[in-house]
Each structure stands twice: as C-alpha cells, then as structure tokens.
Task: structure prediction
Amino acid sequence: MKNSLTVTDNRTGKSYELAIQNGAIRAGDLRQIKVAEDDFGLMSYDPAFMNTASCTSRITFIDGDKGILRYRGYPIEELAEKSTYLETAYLLLYGELPTKAELEDWVYNVTIHTIIHENIKKFIDGFHYDAHPMGMLVSTVAALSTYYRDAKSIFDGESRRRQTYRLIGKMPTLAAFVYRHTRGMPYAYPDNDLSYTGNFLNMLFKMTEVKYQPDPILERALDVLFILHADHEQNCSTNAMRSVGSSHVDPYSAVAAAAAALYGPLHGGANEEVLRMLTEIGTKDRVPEFIKRVKGGEGLLMGFGHRVYKNYDPRAKIIKRVADQVFEVTGRNPLLDIALELERIALEDDYFIKRKLYPNVDFYSGIIYQAMGFPVDVFPVLFAIPRTSGWMAQWEEMLLDSEQKIARPRQVYLGSPQRSYVGIDQRKAR
Ligand code: CMC
Result:
C-alpha cells in the first residue's frame, strides 16, 4: 500500500501524487495544481473547518463515533473517578501524571496565585449590577494582561509557567468576585487551606462564618465537573486560543478571546440555554409539543448534538451519575424529569436518530449547577474556569510547534471585480 493520493486535474489532464501522512494530505500540496504558470494554485474550501486539521496535537483524543474521550491517553471515565481537577490540569499541561512531589509543588504554586490585585475589584465594581458574569469575566481576564508585563515573554518557559499558575489560580477568584458583585455581596478572599473547588465554593458562598466548610460531596462533584470540562481538543474556544495566541499576544489576552468564544450559546453558553429551555417547557407533558417545534425548525434542542460526537457524549454519561450524588445533598432538581423525558423522546425519534443527535456535556450540567445554588448566567463561567488549563496546554503546544505560524486562512473572493469610485452625487438609490 502506498501512502499517497493521485489526483487528476481534468482542466489540464495532469496527474499529481500527494503524500498522505497521519490520514491527511497537506492543503499546501494542492498549490502545485495550476492551470497556468501565474495561477495561484488550487486551495481547499472548508467553511467552519468541517474537515480540516489545523494542527497536530498530543493532548486530547476524541473518537466521536465511538463516544471516546481521553486526555493524554487516559480515558475520561478513569480520570473522573480517580483524579482531581488540579492533577488533571497538570496532566494536560505537562503530558504525564505528576509524581507526589510534582503534584504538591503544582498545587502549592497554583494556590499561592489565587489572590488578585485589589484594583481588579474596582474594575468589577464598575460593572452594572445585572451585567452578565461571563462578560465581566472576559473583561477582567483581559485586564490581567495589564498587570503582568512579563507575560509578553511568551518564549520564556519560566514566564509561561508563571502565567499558567496565575491564570489557573486566579480564574476561580475572578469568577467568584464577579458572582458576588451581581449579588451585591462583599468579596470573599481565597482560603488557601481549602482545595481548588473547596476554595471556589468558599469565595462564592461564604457568609459571616469565620471559616467556610464546603460540603465534601458538592466539592468533589464540582471537581469532577471541572475534570470533564478541562479540554476538548480543537473546539471553537480552543481554536480561538490558538489563533489569537498565534499572533504572539500575551496569554491573558488570548484566554480572554477564548472565553469570549466560549460565551456563545452554541458553545459553552449552551448550558445556560438548556436551563432556560427546560424552565420554558415547564412540565413533562409539554415535552412532545416542544420536540415537534424543534423538528419543525423552531429552534434547537439545546444540549443536544455535537460537531464531533455522533454518539452519546461520554461526559454526559458521567454527569448523569454526578447528578444523583449532588441531589442526595441538595434535593432533586425538578427540571431533571423534564430533561430525562426530552432525552427519552429524542433518542427514539427519527429526526434525532438520523442526524445522530445525542445529549452533550451541557445537557445535564446546568441541572446540577442550579441544584448547587448557581444562578443560570454563571453557568458559562463554570465552564471557563476548568477550560483554562486546556487552553493553556493547547497554547503552549501551538507556540512550541515549529510548523505553526500566525493563523491566517485563505478566502475565496466572490465580490465585485475592480470598479471606479463614484462621487456621492452620482450614486443611484438602491
Ligand atoms: N436540535 C435540533 N436539531 C439539531 C441540533 C439540535 N440541538 N443540533 C443539530 N441539529 C440538526 C441541524 O439542524 C442539522 O439538520 P439538517 O441536516 O436538517 O440541516 C443537523 O442536525 C446537523 O447539525 P449541524 O448544525 O450541521 O451540526 P454542527 O456540527 O454544525 O453543530 C452544534 C454542532 C453543537 C453547534 C449543534 O448541534 C447545536 O447547535 N447544538 C445545540 C447547542 C449545544 O448544545 N451546544 C453545546 C455543544 S457541546 C459543549 C461545547 O463543546 O461547547
């Protein structure tokens, strides 16, 4: 078997042999295919990157047909059962599970970077009381770049390591402060005696008690949810992180761009939309009517479908189990029954079967977050915190990849050919 592709250009009758490597041809190899010497050469046209690999990566593996997700080779199910979020973040960033000493050092360094500059509170204070938490998070992460000028040294490994500690350490603090601002509550400072998620719960929900004690079941449930959300290879926000980072901007600005991409309702904002959808449906008996409307083209079944998974999202399976544990503590979220009914009917329906639409990670996560006391508009923020480790791992991989350059796609121009400027008095009404 020869690892190549022979193509014949029917415009010229010429044949070309293109190398196949790792199941892909190089789009650049198409450029030799020309009809004339001054021809630009053939391009591939692929809106939304439906079939284009933009990088090689060794971080996350997904088999969408089989419903498989692995970080650095480790199945997501095993990590969700046995690991912690910070250990998983280390794995994503550095490629291997840490030794005991490495983990202690990593946890220590992330933990001592949880505090934020007092001035950042003033930025947050400046937002309107009903500003969307994700908008505030995107802006305050971007603002961090103005504090850490050393972050511009992106090819200095030590600097990258420092910014990674800072970003992973500070994201929960920013998120919690943003939440408390919307509630008009005084900011609660990090408690470095607590775990990553325990401290996050402390900064969110601490009232007047001297020491906040997180519920261990909720603390672990949030940790598992963070593991599940830590990376997902080349999705919209990761692509934004790599693309913006490829201009060699500092990582705070690139993370702000990635978080902005995550904010959209088709990506990390979907968990928020699922809750709004379930609330709007209201009761189980109204599910068939809702499904009928979706099939008729009136909106989407939020939390269903995925660009890569054409099978059950493995994260959604784990989340369903976490939900049971959380409800033991918080009481059952009544929206769960509507979600289960939606899933049952959708999975039996031809429309969804034919299109291979299954529940994704966002379908059940919001129900858990709501039961834990998070307001709906904080949900995308809960996605951005753990995804920061994935973004940073992908950013570093991109920077150190000698094949990568500034991301700059081509276009197929279909606009007007050259024409002469027309003075305003001569222009005709359209
Ligand atoms: N409800 C109803 N129909 C759907 C849905 C849905 N949720 N998702 C896709 N379809 C239909 C779509 O209309 C299209 O039908 P047709 O072939 O008749 O035109 C077909 O299924 C293929 O969909 P697509 O839009 O071409 O698929 P895509 O790969 O471009 O989009 C998606 C993937 C996730 C954006 C999309 O499924 C969607 O909008 N889902 C709802 C939003 C959501 O839950 N997003 C979270 C994604 S998982 C977390 C994350 O990584 O962010």
